[in-house]
Each structure stands twice: as C-alpha cells, then as structure tokens.
Design brief:
- By secondary structure, this protein is of the alpha/beta class.
- The chain has a single domain, classed as Glycoside hydrolase/deacetylase (TIM Barrel), CATH 3.20.20.370.
- About 40% of the residues lie in helices and about 15% in strands.
- The protein is built from eleven helices and ten strands.
- Strands 1, 2, 3, 4, 5, 6, 7, 8, 9 and 10 form a ten-stranded parallel sheet that branches.
- α2 packs parallel to α9, α4 crosses α5 and α8 crosses α9.
- The longest helix has 25 residues.
- The radius of gyration is 21 Å and the shape is globular.
- The C terminus is likely disordered.
- The structure holds zinc ion.
- The site of zinc ion has 6 residues, from loops.
C-alpha cells in the first residue's frame, strides 16, 4: 500500500513536472498568463481581395475580440526598434506596411522586423497621399518600387525571413483607386484597409492615442488596427495598450498570406514579389536627390 502510494506520488510529480514544462514553453516569458505564440490567420490574396470594413465589404476572418496590429510608414531607426522590443516582450506578432524609401535607407531594420517573425507588406515607395491622381503607369511604378525596396533589403536575409514579405499592400492615406486595386489583383496582391485607427499621426499625446485605440476597438469589437511605427507616441503607449486590451479579454492575431496565394503572386510574369532578382539598394535610390517624403497624411484617417 505504502509502496503503491509512493509510486502514485512519483507519477503525480512526474506529470506535474511535464505539465509545468509544457506551460513554460507555451507561456510568454515577458507577459505570464498569455500565450507565447500569436494565433495566425491565413488569408487568400489570389485575385487581389480588398480587406477591411472601413472601406470594403469584405474583411479578414476574426473571432470576437480578436485584433490585428498593423504598423505603417516605417521602418524608423528609433520607434520601429522600440516597437519590436515591446511586441517581443508581450509575444505579439504584427504586420508592417513599409515605405520603400525608408526600407532602402534602413535595410537592417527591415531584416530585423522579418527576423522577429512579423509579416511585411508595402505602402509604396514615397508615400504619395494622392496616388489616385497619378497616371496609372506612375502609380504602378510607385507601388512596384515599394515592393522592390523591401525585397532588396531582405535579399541577404535567410530564406525563411525573405518569406515574411507578403503580397499585402496598403494605399497611403487609404486613398485607393479601382484601377489600381484591379492591377494589384491581377498580381494576386491583397489590399488592406482597416476597421479602426488611433489617430497616432495627429499631434496628440500617447495617452490619448491609447485611449482612442481602445475606444475605437471597443466600438467594433474585432478587426484590423492601423498604427504608425514612425511615431514615438505610439511606441510610448504600446505596452500599456497591449496589457489593457488583454485585461479586457482581447487577443492579438497575426495575418499571413495563404502559402498557395503567395506562390501564385510570385509566379505572375511581372510579379510584385519574389519573381525578380532584387535590385541592389544603390540602384533603387532616387536618381536625383529626393526631398524627405512627407508622411503627414492628408486624409481623414492617415
Ligand atoms: Zn501611411
């Protein structure tokens, strides 16, 4: 009897140890109580769907209280790195819509974003808020150069990290055009709008950005949030924002392209991703000195 209970005790201890090890592996070290892994939702890009109910009838399939974090306009040598550290601490993966010009200037940050497991989409070369007023050829060149710049930055990265560049695109200022969405669609690149923003491009304090993000998310319940990784006020509020959202029962979800969609996007003859040898960074810099692109959005949102 005594021997049996000792044996049972050993089994219980062994089971407990195994469970504890399992829990440790699956728990976020910097944010105990939450998972180490971010749930990934794969979305098709074939045919170029446009996602985000702020502008489009269709959006990404999320459960109640699931939020996708997206960061636009970077990479930025200060704020982007701070944001990456905060996301790591809380074990949250996000999507970054990068401006090609900045990707060419800071290729090491592009590689860092990919190495830390985030998905990268693009946001044109110079962030023209009036892309829809460009000629079609000029606008297409803006979009293509944005993809090429990120591709060039990732050229020296491990294959797994290069795959982080997704056929995902967001229009600067969300100023889309039907002709460009169609053109992107022929290349199997999905367009992303959002469900909510946080006004972090406006001259407001970080506490106000946080307040507006929480308020706007609560009013819809689930969806894609637009933030800007170029803004110190966004980096300032991010940790506390994540903690509060989680306390309120929200969870964060990462979007990724369906693998077959990505392969199809890369196989198009004039593909925007993965089809051409990336140009050297020197080749894709503006031929003449270009003024710092204005990233102050002129649309109502950004
Ligand atoms: Zn932008």
């Amino acid at each position: 009897m005594g021997r049996i209970s000792t044996l049972a005790g050993i089994v219980v201890v062994a089971l407990f140890a195994a469970t504890a090890a399992y829990a440790n592996e699956n728990t976020c070290p910097g944010d105990p109580g939450y998972a180490a892994e971010t749930r990934v939702v794969t979305v098709p890009t074939t045919g170029g769907p446009a996602y985000g109910n702020m502008q489009y009838p269709q959006t990404v399939p999320l459960g109640p209280k699931e939020v996708v974090l997206t960061f636009d306009d970077g990479p930025d040598p200060e704020s982007t790195l701070r944001i990456l550290d905060t996301l790591d601490r809380h074990c949250v993966k996000a999507t970054f819509f990068m401006v090609g010009y900045y990707a060419a200037r800071h290729p090491e940050i592009v590689r860092e974003v990919a190495a830390r497991g985030h998905i990268i989409g693009t946001h044109t070369w110079l962030h023209p808020n009036s892309l829809r007023s460009y000629s079609l050829a000029q606008a297409q060149r803006e979009i293509r150069r944005g993809f090429e710049a990120v591709e060039a930055a990732l050229a020296s990265a491990p294959a797994e990290d290069r795959q982080r560049l997704a056929p995902f695109f967001r229009f600067p200022g969300l100023n889309d055009s039907a002709a460009l969405i169609r053109w992107l669609g022929e290349r199997h690149v999905a367009t992303f709008s959002c469900e909510f923003g946080a006004d972090d491009w406006k001259p407001i304090g970080s506490a106000e950005v946080r307040r507006r993000a929480i308020r706007n998310i609560a009013s819809v319940g689930r969806g894609i949030l637009i933030l800007h990784d170029t803004k110190p006020r966004t980096a300032d509020m991010l940790s506390s924002f994540i903690v509060t959202m989680r306390e309120q029962g929200y969870s964060f979800v990462q979007l990724a392209p369906e693998p077959e969609s990505r392969i199809r996007a890369a196989a198009v003859s004039d593909a925007l991703i993965g089809a051409v040898e990336p140009l050297a960074v020197a080749d894709i810099r503006p031929a003449t000195a270009v003024a710092e692109p204005s990233l102050e959005p002129d649309a109502a949102l950004h």
